[in-house]
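Final paragraph of the annual report: two paired records, presented back to back.
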Amino acid sequence: MSLRTLLLTGLAALVPVAGVLPVSAGAAQGGGGEPTVTHEVVESFDGVPIHTTLFWPAGAGAEDPVPVVMRAHGWAGHGERGLDEASSTTMALLGAGYAVLTWDERGFGYSGGEVHVLKPEFEGRDASVLVDWLATDPDVAPMIACETARGVGGSCPDPVIGMSGGSYGGGIQLLTAAFDGEFSSTTSDGRSRVDAIAPEITWNDLRYSLYDDQVLNLGWGEALYAVGLPAAQAEGLDPGNPAGTQSGGLDPRIHQAQAEGLATGRLSAESVDFFGRSSLAVYGAEHPVRVPSLFVQGSVDTLFDLTEAARNFGHVRERAPARLIVFCGGHVSCPASYADADDRRFIDRAILDWFAKHLRGQDVDTGPPVAYRTNAGVWRSAGDFTPRDAAFLTASGAGSVVSTPVPTTIGLDDPGSVLDQPTNTAPFIAQPNRAGDPHAFTVEVAAARGGDLELVGVPKARLAVSGIGPEAHLFLKLVDREAGEVVNLQETPVRVENLSAEPQRLHVTMSGVAYTLPEGNHLDLQVSTTSLMHTAARTPAQADATVQVDVPVRRR
């Protein structure tokens, strides 16, 4: 499938495909029959209509109230609207006796308003309005389990609520957990009414995801804009929209950022601030997340990488129970060279166990703080990411690279048009540079002797860069030499400005990794000025660099 085809089918709206899962902990208390589905258009705080779908498990009722899981969709998507659209994660939740509420985020699907990329004052307030609705609607509230005594007329001031979903649907979970206490109209203690969340493949800081070190992640930025623009306009205009005709659209600052990136290769301070305000890394300082959080992140996800997951995990675990699962997949498919580990089944079991413990209060073992699998396909446990028992491979070297205004093509024998490339080659993944390429140099880090080396955690690098030219963009990549693959398909961008004879010293946190280097293979670090994923510098330069890298490893 070409990238063009994938874009037209809603590339970034998807969360990992789920497989059918037998009921685990927290199973429904009997009750046969099919789940029931109802739809409601809920008016948000500013009058914007929000289209919702509520799935009730078989047997749920006022005499047997159940917890509800608010399940959110990805960028440019819409909520699951019927059993024929329901993911197997939703079906597993229903089978375990949870109600599931889905909704179309502001600006997408049938809902009205503009897309603001998850701002507290817009999408955050929408989510709290939905909790208010669940808590007070006389037809809904009696059927939902409560943490506090019911109010007058069967209201449920503090319903038992979890949240799940991936990507954009993970971002809204962090936002709601952080701000619901401030926006709540049914409680006054400032505490979030969300009791547990399970965000998948989501971000910590969009400034890092899309513009790390002021280098545009152009491949993903263009793809997200390409699918987001029509999605925010099309479905709302459907004559059959139960919310009425909705014009939708993207916030003008998204268009502004798109124009800035294409025209200059940079984002203005206003655009950087716009994306920062959608990020836990920014709002979490004053509005931290204090609810039990299960994070699920893909090792080969080049949009939201493992470093972001480690930061989210670290933020929450200082305040509440937290767990991190590292699987193979995400916004990038698991490579064919990686062994299968039944990832989706593992994830769904973990979600059910997490909610059983934190929504139902059951005595359930939710597993170690960190569970990960590498390309070898075996699940491992750790107390942190980077694991506390990890050693570090340290290597250093030096080299010179040229930077040209038009990037050379790397790793593809016949690149053609980027939009016609298969998604496993461009433009979302890093490729190794060929030997002798003047745009890269290579430093050997280690050879796996006496057994495999398990690379697990967040590598760090230190650079001293001198040279000639106004700027250079350097890309750091760990490479499995014999496999001919970049480790977990990841590269880390570094912008160096005003090159001169005086070296500039830089400390770089690289993309996290979970990868097994087979015995006999060599691990290299490549420093390159070319990329298919990120923007290269627009002016010629020569950079002379010395580099030291520290890679966390466990030996198997």
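The closing record of the year follows.
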Amino acid sequence: MGSFLSDNIRLLVHIRQRLHRDKMLGLCLGAGISSDFSFPSWPKLIRRIAQHSEIKGEGLLNVSESLTSQSQFLFHKYKQNLADSDRMTGDEVVDNRQAAVGWLRIVHECLYRGAQVKAEQLRQHPYLWDLIPLIKQSTMTVNYNFDDSVERMLYSYYADAIRESDDRGFEVVWQPSTQFRRQEGVIYHPNGFLPYSTTDGLSEQIIFMEQEFADQLIDVGTGHYSCLLNHFSKHTIIFLGLSLSDATLKHILRIAARNNPGHFHYHIHWCRDHKPPVEEQLAIRQANFSVYNLVTLFLTTEEIRDLSRLIVAKQEPFDGECDKEPQGVNTDYRYYVTGPVGAGKTTTVEQIRCLDCFEEWVDRKHPLLHKPHEGLSPEERHEVDTWINQQFRKKNRRVSRVVQGIALIDRSPVDPLYFVEGEGAVRSRALELIEWMVPTSSAIKKIAPGHLIILMCNVVILRTRLALRDKQYTNPQLLSHHTTISNFWKDYPQATIIDTTNMTVAQVVKRILEVVLFDEYREIEFQDVCESKTT
């Protein structure tokens, strides 16, 4: 068993890549983070409200086990108590407003009773203090809690900068359709906002009762939460302190997963004392990834602290932590996708944009590539091969420069060898590829290695797919190409083979992501492969 860093290095470099380079990492926070400030759990909060002197509704907690139903019952009990005490005016609009304000006051009182709200207490949070720089620079942090602990932590963390600039440096919103004033540092409370000091501004409504949750779910279907859906579709999100029990959140995540199967997020599954058995972890991980595109990490509080510090660490300290690992750690992950024409290489790579993606060609596609290679004249073949050599040189240079990240590359560096026949021709083409991709004057000393993913497909299906793209290939041509690729890699068991024959594009995308995120990384030295063809 390695250290936390070595056990999670592949996911760590991706998360850091999304934060420090892409500026596309965000947080989604739930009740789990507030419990460390001694805020009550939802059941405890409802019990406090039921015991409140203005409600006295503990008996209603036995009517239903649903927490949303319990809160709905208690609110109507409060309204009934107001009517019985002759505090109603008889004006329905005014009375409803009075009841709503009074209800928020009671919830606020019960929420903050015994909570840790002082600056020195906020700094003692096991991991949230370390994540404040991420919250500050993120486009938007989604916070499903009512309290303003995150906002007060931002005030404390950036106190000097706020005093000097007269700008608090962040923005708080609770309306999903709000046009943000800032491009970073936005804190969005989908379920409403009840700050410790109500003079800081609070939402007129909190999502706490059965009716409100039902309306929220309806609002998703009418596009009311398109801003949140758009945020989840573009950014990589770490879900922290959430149990995924919120129906609205799950609905939005499912829509995002269906609309964009190549985009994924991270869910921290908190383990209090011990982690679930390996087989249970696997089942949960597979279910969350299959349904919501969530990569589940089973972490203790101490491990969440380690994760937080490693995410926000500057480059030099992070490199130092990697250097401390006794066995060393690999921080460069390259995945090449190869296969016969029409197998789905380009289509699937195009759908996975939260990794470093390298397209099939660096420049605009050469028009002769639309013709089958076998149908080219000698002059055309020379023209195409020269152009391809230039493309592979450019791409190898760019791929070789990938550091501390995950790259997905359309086509392997030796793909051109599929299209030549005869030992002499193969040897000549292999030498040519090496000379172009690793010129003697270049700082790049070898063809960039990586894990190979081979997409294969039934020849009949291949021909149908290609016909739809106005590419005319015969069955013998496709069968020959299919056989060439199978034979080429038969002695490389470290390659991953995916049969795409009966798979949709979304299924192929998900399968590639599973290889990238969960399977063992097994590099192939393409320099050696190419050199083996020269002898």
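The first helix runs from residue 4 to 7. This concludes the annual technical report; the extension proposal builds directly on these records.
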